Amino acid sequence: NAGVTQTPKFQVLKTGQSMTLQCAQDMNHNSMYWYRQDPGMGLRLIYYSASEGTTDKGEVPNGYNVSRLNKREFSLRLESAAPSQTSVYFCASSEGTGPEPQHFGDGTRLSIL
Amino acid sequence: AQSVTQLDSQVPVFEEAPVELRCNYSSSVSVYLFWYVQYPNQGLQLLLKYLSGSTLVKGINGFEAEFNKSQTSFHLRKPSVHISDTAEYFCAVSGQAGGSYIPTFGRGTSLIVHP
Question: Which of A2, A95, B30, B63 is the most core-located residue (most Cβ within 10 A)?
Answer without folding.
Answer: B63
